[in-house]
């Protein structure tokens, strides 16, 4: 009951949208528009229970997510997609959200941000660094240098099964999450808050254990955000709330502050709100800011999604690079603060 009450109160909190140059104070939950290299030095040191970083993965290409509207082709029309029973359908592009994933020197880009993140962690704080196989080994060495090898807590593997499957190598179907603590041995970690999962072989344990489930290990099997799921925003590389929920529940206290310097679609904020934590989200992309405004700003009434004609924050104008430019406005009733 107490947890439900805390989550309900959290869903009523205000979210303030700020520009990087505005005065920062940890009062309301914050979404800050700007380069995190400029914003991080202005946040108070030692203030955060948890920092989650999901930086661009340095794949050397731009990442994009296109959204289509599909309808059944009318009489005499030539559809561009085939459906069940040979029916033809026509599709049109509603919007394309994208971000740049190109950095000449990836570690040089990350190092000053990670150094400041270490300073921002409370003595009991934990950093989760989300990366893919291309850079994980380099980033592990960088984090060892900044935090110290003794501060390394875990290498988490998030495994999924989605996307293309090459025929000349093992399909890459996992991301790596490197976990470091500010103070070895003094970090906050609450297993009682973590959702348990079924045993893979329930017949090998007692009925009581099977019913209770087990704590997750360092390998997490979790689907990506479903295409037609309620939490889908259309933002490229959006991470599922289930993965972030496990991180936030284990490594932050109720009411504690959590930070995401590469906030993207704002999944950390949505999870923090549901679990009764406070959050600061930072991103420089107008597309990301528009998605976060639609996802996190409550208050009832009507919300605009992906086509809000008003800028998501002052200083970000419609038509700027990265601003979503859909073919239509999607208006949906607000489903309440904290919903996906």
* Name of the CATH homologous superfamily: Vaccinia Virus protein VP39
Secondary structural class: alpha/beta
Overall pLDDT metric: 78
CATH architecture: 3-Layer(aba) Sandwich
What is the CATH class name?
Alpha Beta
Q: What global shape is seen?
A: globular
How many domains comprise the coordinates?
1
Walk across the major sheet and give the strand order.
1-2-12-11-3-7-9-8-10
Question: Which key terms come to mind for this protein?
Answer:
Rossmann fold; disordered C terminus; 23% helix; 340 residues; nine-stranded mixed β-sheet; alpha/beta; three-stranded antiparallel β-sheet
Question: Short summary of the structure?
Answer:
The protein is built from 8 helices and 14 strands. It has about 350 residues and is an alpha/beta fold. β5 and β6 (about 90-100) form a beta hairpin.
Describe this structure as you would to a colleague.
- The protein is α/β, with parallel strands linked by helices.
- It has a single domain (2-68, 97-333), classed as 3-Layer(aba) Sandwich (Rossmann fold).
- The chain has helices at residues 2-11, 36-39, 106-120, 136-147, 207-212, 241-251, 267-275, 286-296; strands spanning 15-19, 29-33, 48-53, 63-72, 81-82, 88-99, 121-131, 152-159, 174-181, 219-221, 257-260, 278-283, 302-305, 330-333.
- The strands form three sheets. It has a nine-stranded mixed sheet, sandwiched between helices. Strands 4-6-5 form a three-stranded antiparallel sheet, with no helix packed on it.
- Helix 3 (106-120) crosses helix 4 (136-147) and helix 6 crosses helix 7 (267-275).
- It is globular, with a radius of gyration of 21 Å.
- It starts with a helix and ends in a 7-residue tail after the last strand.
């Amino acid at each position: 009951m107490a947890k439900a009450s805390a989550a309900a109160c959290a869903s009523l909190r205000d979210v303030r949208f700020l520009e990087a140059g505005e005065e920062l104070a940890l009062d309301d939950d914050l979404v800050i528009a700007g380069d995190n290299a400029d914003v991080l030095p202005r946040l108070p040191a030692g203030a955060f229970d948890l920092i989650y970083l999901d930086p661009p993965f340095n794949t050397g290409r731009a990442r994009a997510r296109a959204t289509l509207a599909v309808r059944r082709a009318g009489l005499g029309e030539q559809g561009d997609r085939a459906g069940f029973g040979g029916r033809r359908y026509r599709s049109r592009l509603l919007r394309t959200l994208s971000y740049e994933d190109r950095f000449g020197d990836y570690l040089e880009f990350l190092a000053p941000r990670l150094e400041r993140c270490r300073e921002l962690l409370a003595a009991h704080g934990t950093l989760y660094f989300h990366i893919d196989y291309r850079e994980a080994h380099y980033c592990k060495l960088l984090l060892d240098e900044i935090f110290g090898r003794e501060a390394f807590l875990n290498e988490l593997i998030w495994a999924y099964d989605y996307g293309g499957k090459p025929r000349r190598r093992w399909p890459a179907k996992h991301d790596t999450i490197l976990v470091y603590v500010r103070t070895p041995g003094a970090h906050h970690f609450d297993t009682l808050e973590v959702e348990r999962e079924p045993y893979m072989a329930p017949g090998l344990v007692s009925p009581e254990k099977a019913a209770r489930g087990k704590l997750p290990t360092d390998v997490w099997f979790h689907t990506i955000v479903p295409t037609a799921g309620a939490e889908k925003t259309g933002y490229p590389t959006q991470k599922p709330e289930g993965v972030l929920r496990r991180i936030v529940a284990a490594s932050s206290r109720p009411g504690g502050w959590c930070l995401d310097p590469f906030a993207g679609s704002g999944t950390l904020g949505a999870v923090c709100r549901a679990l009764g934590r406070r959050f600061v989200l930072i991103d420089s992309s107008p597309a990301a800011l528009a998605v976060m405004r639609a996802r996190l700003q409550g208050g009832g009434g009507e919300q605009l999604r992906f086509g809000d004609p008003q800028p998501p924050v002052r200083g970000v104008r419609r038509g700027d690079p990265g601003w979503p430019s859909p073919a239509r406005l999607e208006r949906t009733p607000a489903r309440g603060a904290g919903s996906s």
